[in-house]
Write a structure and sequence with these properties.
globular, single chain, binds adenosine-3'-5'-diphosphate, 10 helices, D-Maltodextrin-Binding Protein, domain 2, seven-stranded mixed beta sheet, five-stranded mixed beta sheet, binds magnesium ion, Fructose-1,6-Bisphosphatase, Chain A, domain 1, 351 residues, alpha+beta
């Protein structure tokens, strides 16, 4: 399908502008965390920067969607109830005002928020329950909270879902260098925008540039096709509470993978995979009862498929985004098509 005439052209442009605006805002907060940490003024338990970022980002993106697609529902992670009586409201309003001013040329397309009432209303557009029919959006305003608070990786993730399948995904990665070699070696521009449209492909462009760049002027990305264990690279989370690093170590051993894994918070993992900088994403469950949230995986899911990869649960079955706000399956495994089946086999062997 042509890159400029696809059926989701308007959706992609609006999603991109909204994610870019939210990314500028969250990047400011992320940079301020790093400064506060260096000066010793941010205590470890102070979650306020991420709270401010979560609400502001969700308000901006939801507002853009509702303005352009008033009939669409949104499954958003945050709920304005947690904002009531919060001392952070004036900070949220100030930050939103500031980023709107800096990107005022987007107002024609994605509007602007003027007061607290509009902000809370917009956040609560995210209350959809999702489901198997019709279309809705899934938004994670800051994915990788823990990474964000460490000054590491996080992402603004937006996806469009139709009849349980993801058809469009946009991920803003404010702290992600273009090239990741290993946990401590990287290079290139910091700040990446990763987009995918069903039937069109997956694309990379620099995040902190102005406006919407048509896909044919972005860089098309694809996964590698290697299955040679000595060349395979695994990407996995940082938080041991979110995936079982010990199970993952066993799987890597069965597959004969010796290259150290790349550890990254948030859906930037999918971006690194889709751009061929790693081959396998392992997210093995730590608990029998936890169910993944759809906003944690929707945008990354289409990015992988459109770059030639495959995604499944621990059984190897595709993820079903039509089962409400959570997935019904356990774990997430992604890989290039050449290795996917053997990874699932190794997973089954270990579990
Ligand atoms: N026990 C658990 N197992 C798997 N994922 C979990 C989890 N507890 C929380 N999470 C999710 O893990 C996400 C981050 O993933 P990662 O570890 O890959 O960075 C969190 O998103 P948020 O940070 O948006 O809340 C959260 O939704
Ligand atoms: Mg998340
Ligand atoms: Mg989140
Ligand atoms: Mg969360």
């Amino acid at each position: 399908m042509a890159t400029s005439t696809h059926p989701y052209a308007k959706e992609l442009e609006i999603a991109t502008l909204a994610v870019k605006r939210a990314s500028i805002l969250t990047k400011k907060l992320s940079d301020s965390i790093v400064t506060l940490q260096q000066s010793g003024t941010l205590t470890k338990d102070d979650k306020s920067p991420v709270t401010v970022g979560d609400f502001a980002s969700q308000a901006i993106v939801n507002h853009a969607i509702k303005l352009n697609f008033p009939n669409d529902e949104i499954v958003g992670e945050e709920d304005s109830q947690d904002l009531q009586d919060s001392p952070l409201t004036s900070q949220i309003l100030d930050l939103i005002n500031q980023v709107q001013q800096e990107t005022s040329e987007y107002d024609d397309k994605i509007g602007k928020l003027s007061n607290l009432k509009e902000i809370t209303t917009s956040i609560d557009f995210g209350d959809s329950q999702g489901g198997s029919t019709g279309r809705f959006w899934a938004l994670d305003p800051i994915d990788g909270t823990k990474g964000f608070l460490r000054g590491d990786q996080f992402a603004v993730c937006l996806a469009l879902i139709e009849n349980g399948k993801v058809v469009l995904g946009v991920i803003g990665c404010p702290n992600l260098p273009q090239i990741i070699h290993s946990n401590d070696k990287h290079e290139g521009i910091v700040g990446g925008l990763y987009s995918a449209v069903k039937g069109v492909g997956s694309y990379y462009s620099a995040l902190f540039t102005k406006g919407f760049t048509p896909l044919d002027q972005q860089q098309k990305i694809s996964m590698k096709s290697t299955s040679n264990p000595s060349e395979l690279k695994v990407v996995e989370g940082v938080e041991k509470g979110h995936s079982s690093h010990s199970t993952q170590a066993q799987i890597k051993q069965i597959l004969g993978i010796t290259t150290p894994a790349i550890n990254l918070d948030s859906q930037v993992k999918y971006c690194v995979l889709a751009s061929g900088q790693s081959d396998i994403y392992l997210r093995l469950p730590v608990s029998d009862t936890y169910r993944e949230k759809i906003w944690d995986h929707a945008a990354g899911n289409i990015l992988i498929y459109e770059s030639g990869g495959q995604v499944g649960d621990i059984e190897g079955n595709p993820l079903n985004f039509g089962t409400g706000r959570t997935l019904q399956s356990k774990g997430v495994i992604a890989g290039n098509k050449q290795v996917f089946d053997s990874v699932i086999k190794a997973v089954q062997q270990v579990l």
